Amino acid sequence: MTAKQQSQQPRGQSYDQWIGETAYDTNGEKIGEITDIFYDDRTRRPEWVAIKSGMFKGNVFAPIQGSTSRADEDGGLQLNYTKDHIKDAPKVASADDHMSADEERELWSHYGYDYGVDADARRTDYGYGPDYTNANRADKDFAHRRWNDQTNDWTDERRMDEHTEEVPITTQAQVTVPVEANVRLRRYQTQNQKTETRQVQVPVTETEEHTEVVGVDAQAKTPSTKGTTRK
């Protein structure tokens, strides 16, 4: 494989690689930089990307559903909506780990989704429309983590068909963080973010030990020593 062919391979093969990549609209027009990924507690997988662009103030959100990975040398994620549609989406301050229920409702409405789906109905489209289960998506084969309300933490990263543990769908009684009862989206923690650790420098005091044998005690028949310890 030539260097040129290698450069044309899709770069975004995991959610970690999406952060910092460029998002494009359905026509291939550049939108902006992907800054965050948001996970849906109902579907138990990442469903949205947050995009920063000079065209608008704040971040806009777009669905992952229907997206494709760009295989050209620029890479990036191509979304299934036009630039104008995404640009006109409700602006959300994604500094928090959650949106408000009102923000989510506006977002669903903008993209023609049904936010009023009852979580207990177990509808297979989860309000994302009839094409949800059949639509192609760039992250179809990605390994991902799930949020567990019982432990208030993320599970290990696995592929979709490898998630065998039963993680209850969020209900008001199970929420252990101060979040509105009906909110669905939370900021997704990528594998890189999970494994990042702070390096702490611990001061070390060097010590030097020195012992000198100077003679033998005739009565005890043992060496007598005098020594100095320097610290």
List keywords for this structure.
alpha+beta, disordered N terminus, seven-stranded mixed beta sheet, about 230 residues
- Number of E-type strands: 13
Order of helices and strands: HHEEEEEEHHEEEEEHEE
Domain module tally: 1
- What share of the residues does DSSP label as strand, in percent? 25-35%
**How many DSSP helices?**
5
Radius of gyration: 28 Å
Low-confidence stretches: 1-10, 166-179, 197-205, 207-214
Helix content: 10-25%
Assign the structural class, choosing from mainly alpha, mainly beta, alpha/beta, alpha+beta, or little secondary structure.
alpha+beta
Q: On the 0-100 scale, what is the average pLDDT?
A: 74
Describe it.
The protein is an alpha+beta fold. The protein has one domain. The chain has 5 helices and 13 strands. The strands form 4 sheets. Strands 1, 2, 3, 4, 5, 6 and 11 form a 7-stranded mixed β-sheet that branches. It has a two-stranded antiparallel sheet with strand order 7-10. A two-stranded antiparallel sheet has the order 8-9. The chain is globular and about 40 Å long. The chain starts with a helix and ends with a strand.
